[in-house]
Every structure is written in C-alpha cells, then in structure tokens.
Amino acid sequence: MSYENEVFRIFFNKKYQTLDQTSEGYILNLSTLVFYIFDMKKFVTFSVYNQKYAVSIEYTEEVMSMLPYLEIPHSYEFIEGIVDIRGEIIPVISLRKRFGVSEEYERRSYLVVIVIDGKKYGLKVDSVEGVIDAVDTEISSSQELGEISSEFITSVIRKNTELFIVIDVKKLVEMKQAA
Questions:
Q1: Buried-most residue among 26, 85, 122, 170 (CB within 10 A)?
Q2: pLDDT at residue 140 above 50?
Q3: Closest alpha carbon to 48 in 4, 112, 2
Q4: How many C-alpha atoms does 167 have within 13 Å on its Cβ side?
Q5: Confidence check: pLDDT of 145 > 50
Q6: What residues form DSSP beta bridges with 97?
Q7: CA separation for the pair 51, 108 (Å, rounded)
Q8: CA 81 to CA 48: how far, in whole Å?
Q9: Distances in Å between the alpha carbon of 7 and those of 4, 11, 62?
Q10: Mean per-residue pLDDT for 96-119?
Q11: How would you write the chain as a 3-class SS string?
Q12: What does the mean pLDDT of the chain come to?
C-alpha cells in the first residue's frame, strides 16, 4: 500500500473532515491534514514591557486599540477599570501591573479581549505582534524552564530566533493580588 493510500485510509477511518469530494473521487484537504499531522496550534502574540507573550487563539475573541475605561476604586491592583464594548462591560487587566513591571505605558496600548468560561476580560498590552502557528516541537513546557517563576506561564514558543511566553489565562484572571 502506498504512503498516500495509507494516509487516506487512516484519516477516512478516523472520520476526520479532511476529504473533499471532486468529480474524480475524494482528495485530501491538505491544509487540514497539516494541522492534524503536526498538531499545529495558533496563538495571538503581543508585547508587554519589551517581552513577547502569546495567548492561545481559542481564548481570544478580538484585538483592538485601547478604549477609554472607567477606573474602579478599591479594586484589585491589576484591574485598570472597566470598558464598554458594544454594550458589554468588561474588566481591563493591566498586564504590566499583573506581572509586576513598570506601570508607565510609553506609547499607544491595545486591548486583547479573551473569554474564559464564558466571561470576557480585556488584557491591556503595549503592542500586538500578530498571529503565529506553532507545532509541538516549537513549544517547551513550563517544567522545562527550571528555576524561572512560572505562575502565569504554561509554555514557551521558539519561532526562528524569537521566544514567546505562553500565558496561562485562567490563572491570569484569578482575582487575587499578584505577589
């Protein structure tokens, strides 16, 4: 049996949606196949205080320029305030404050809107890098980081010469003060 036939048989038997019907029969949808073979993941990337971070695209709803927000007195230190996005009130989390780095934003900032367990949060970041694809061989788990504090880190992505810290968004939005 040829390699192509074996791949076809495996994907057909597992009922993956990787086959497109044509007048000549079935063909493999290569873009889908690449994601299954390499277990490719997508991440939204951004910068905070000259460091590059990433959030899994599955948690990301949208990215926009920072909107005016209402400050909330006596709130958690890392909550900048709340913002109204199309009639929905969303808390804004300053990643600079959450990570304990300089609180002064030197230039225009952005809002990365994430959804965790049905609740929306806005992450205030310095700049947005874009969307990257990463395969398992480019991702190191936080256990491989050794002595580095990994409270909000799930892994690190190596893309060419760049490193991106993947944020554990569930821990990030926990409402307890940063140490």
A1: 122
A2: yes
A3: 112
A4: 29
A5: yes
A6: none
A7: 16
A8: 18
A9: 5, 6, 36
A10: 86
A11: CCHHHHHHHHHHHCCCCCEEEECCEEEECHHHHHHHHHCCEEEEEEEECCEEEEEEHHHEEEEEECCCCECCCCCCCCEEEEEEECCEEEEEEEHHHHHCCCCCCCCCCEEEEEEECCEEEEEEECEEEEEEEECHHHEEEHHHHCCCCCCCEEEEEEECCEEEEEECHHHHCCCCCCC
A12: 78
Token pair for 159: 């893309």
Q: Write out the two tokens for 170.
A: 């569930």
End-to-end CA distance of the chain: 59
Give the model confidence (pLDDT) of 48-93 as tens digits.
Answer: 988 999 999 999 999 999 999 999 988 998 999 999 999 999 999 9
For residue 110, give Cα distances in angstroms to 46, 93, 99, 125, 155. 9, 11, 17, 5, 23
Q: Which two tokens stand for residue 175?
A: 């409402």
Buried b (16+ CB within 10 A) or exposed e, 16-25: eebbeeeeee
Q: Please give the Cα distance from 60 to 28 (Å, whole number).
A: 29
